[in-house]
Write a structure and sequence with these properties.
single chain; alpha/beta; TIM Barrel; binds cytidine-5'-monophosphate
Amino acid sequence: MNNKLIVALDFSHRKDALKIVEELRESVEVFKVGIQLFTSCGPKIIQEIKERKANIFLDLKFFDIPNTVEKASEAATALDVDFFDLHLTGGREMIEAAITGSERRAMLLGKNRPKILGVTVLTSQSSAISEVVNSSTIAKENGLDGVIASGLEVAEIRKRVGKDFLILCPGIRPSWAKKQEDQKRIVSPKEAIENGASYIIVGRPITAAKNPREATKRILKEIE
Ligand code: C5P
């Protein structure tokens, strides 16, 4: 995947989500399907986005007992998504169960498993940098492919996890975008990438913009 922008499809109606995919798919390679869209539309929406030649990050943030997370990870793998995630607070056994479930299903399907990411601390909550860095280290030690953290912590995480580990940053607010109060640990697209983010995750600054294509262009230019 060449570009570093993931667009969050936080919609309740498939038509709204697919409209954004169609509008942006020439410049955006990965779209994020989260709990709002998945709960509203079901797994069929994954197929519909894939038919439009886009890659998918299934952001359901698994957090449950290991057996349940193992089975959910098998199911996410069967959906043929490119990334999915879980809460790191679920602990080592839960992380291992996710990897086991995903690898088992991937082997049956004869393909590589999706990248599995760990959520450190939600960007809507305040947190100590050490907490985020420590949980990122645990994610790496336990075999995950990357973490989700704010652009404020990414430089410190990068120092600890090296260059190949994925760090995805939500809580992105370009200087020209409306501030949304629920996101507390925010940075600009440029800052996040300069600090070492592998990808930035952007929702409302694009999806609620008057012209989503123009907003996407501005963000891509900023992180070029
Ligand atoms: O609209 P906005 O740009 O704030 O959207 C950010 C997206 O990233 C949302 O879909 C949210 O669920 C997701 N996310 C987040 N913080 C995390 C993990 C995911 O904001 N730690």
